[in-house]
Amino acid sequence: MEWFVPIILTVITASTPLLLAATGELVAEKSGVLNLGVEGMMLVGAIAGFAATASSGSAILGILAAVVAGVLMSLIFAFLTLTLMANQVATGLALTIFGVGFSALIGSGFVGFPIQPLPGLSIPFVSGIPVIGPIVFGQDFLVYLSIAGVIGVSWFLTRTRAGLILKAVGDSHSSAHAIGYSVIRIRYMATLFGGAMAGLGGAYLSLAYTPMWAENMTAGRGWIALALVVFATWRPGRLLLGAYMFGCISVLQLHAQSAGVHIPSQFMSMLPYLATVIVLVIISSDRAKIRLNAPACIGQAFRPAQ
């Protein structure tokens, strides 16, 4: 147990930002919006959360600031693509590039500034149970929120009228509009939710995973979150499994090196991204499953009839 518990705890912390960002992107894509700006939204959320926490001393304010930052970034994307009908792929890429530069500009005064990490939950007697206690009852708030978010999204998409409407908009926006639903408004709300979750994912990186700010600290996690949605074939339950699988791969390099495995560190560092490519190739080979589960109108602009 001396090595098991630390490995599981590391996997959880590595998986949480992926799960938060991917959950938001799944909802956005279910509505028919393809937002490739997840990486940029995570970075802006990370620096907003860190700056607010470092300035105020309150992690709650930091988390709220990260959510607001992610929402504002997604609002830019939504306005350009849903109102002005800009290309979603090009706009998402531009949003990521903007987020990288903007976060570096804001964070220039916070480099090397340490803060206390998010505190873990502490329940008397229960948190002290060997193995189960620190793993299940000793996590911070955002870890539980990430799991609750997946459960909530799954329930929303399958058990509520609003969720069924959102999926209808993603599958056939023309039909949804014809029966009286506001396609643009629904997609705006789904996109803003995706931005809020990406901001939370960035906040987790700067407030819990590595409680400090460094430029480009997401290190491609936004792109992995995008790949996770495809890996999960747009199903929240599989999203949870995929996030923790990628989390295992991400921390493999750390524990392999500490165990004395003689593999170049550069190879170990590229494993998460290599796994992402392999998974996408495998998933893409099953075109029938993709057609069955993917929103039919994903990435397509909608122009209401005049």
List keywords for this structure.
14 helices; 0% strand; 306 residues; mainly alpha; single chain; ABC transporter involved in vitamin B12 uptake, BtuC
Would you write up a description of this structure?
This protein has helices at 4-30, 38-56, 59-83, 88-106, 132-136, 141-159, 161-171, 173-178, 183-209, 221-231, 236-258, 265-269, 271-285, 287-293. The chain is an all-alpha fold and 306 residues long. It has a single domain, classed as Orthogonal Bundle (ABC transporter involved in vitamin B12 uptake, BtuC), CATH 1.10.3470. Helix 6 packs across helix 7 (161-171) and helix 10 (221-231) packs parallel to helix 13. It is globular. The N and C termini lie far apart (66 Å). The relative contact order is 0.20.
> What is the count of structural domains?
1
Per DSSP, the total helix count is 14
CATH class: Mainly Alpha
Named CATH topology: ABC transporter involved in vitamin B12 uptake, BtuC
Cα(first) to Cα(last) distance is 66 Å
Structural class: mainly alpha
Would you count the extended β strands for me? Answer: 0
Shape call: globular
Task: Outline the low-pLDDT stretches.
Answer: none
Describe how the helices and strands are arranged.
Blueprint: H1 4-30, H2 38-56, H3 59-83, H4 88-106, H5 132-136, H6 141-159, H7 161-171, H8 173-178, H9 183-209, H10 221-231, H11 236-258, H12 265-269, H13 271-285, H14 287-293
Helix pairs in contact: 1-6, 1-9, 1-10, 1-11, 2-3, 2-4, 2-9, 2-10, 3-4, 3-9, 6-7, 6-11, 10-11, 10-13, 11-13
